[in-house]
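sry for the spam today, last one i promise. struct tokens for design, 106 residues
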């Protein structure tokens, strides 16, 4: 009596192939997970660094605004005008033109 077992040999080959594919997929997913985690950590560090830079720039901007507002305060401008010898006029005469004057100059 002859016993043939071709199905078992084919089954072992299919099992080895399935295990190989499963290992390949597992390694691929593991590499992808490690790369993704590394990029995520890098981005988190970059975001925290940029947030620190932003807070420093906001503080510097506030200081510059304070300097600008103090330089342009009305009291300081009046004091500077007095130092330079400017006089406040009671009745200032502004440059005025009429439409007819402008039309004749065309």
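last one done:
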């Amino acid at each position: 009596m002859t016993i043939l077992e071709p199905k078992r040999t084919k089954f072992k080959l299919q099992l080895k192939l399935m295990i190989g594919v499963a290992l390949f997929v597992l390694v691929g997913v593991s590499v992808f997970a490690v790369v993704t985690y590394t990029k995520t950590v890098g981005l988190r560090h970059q975001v925290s660094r940029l947030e620190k830079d932003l807070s420093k720039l906001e503080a510097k901007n506030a200081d510059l605004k304070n300097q600008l507002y103090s330089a342009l305060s009305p009291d300081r401008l009046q004091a500077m005008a007095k130092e330079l010898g400017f006089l406040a006029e009671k009745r200032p005469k502004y440059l005025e033109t009429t439409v007819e004057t402008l039309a004749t100059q065309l």
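Residues 30-104 form one domain. ok im logging off now
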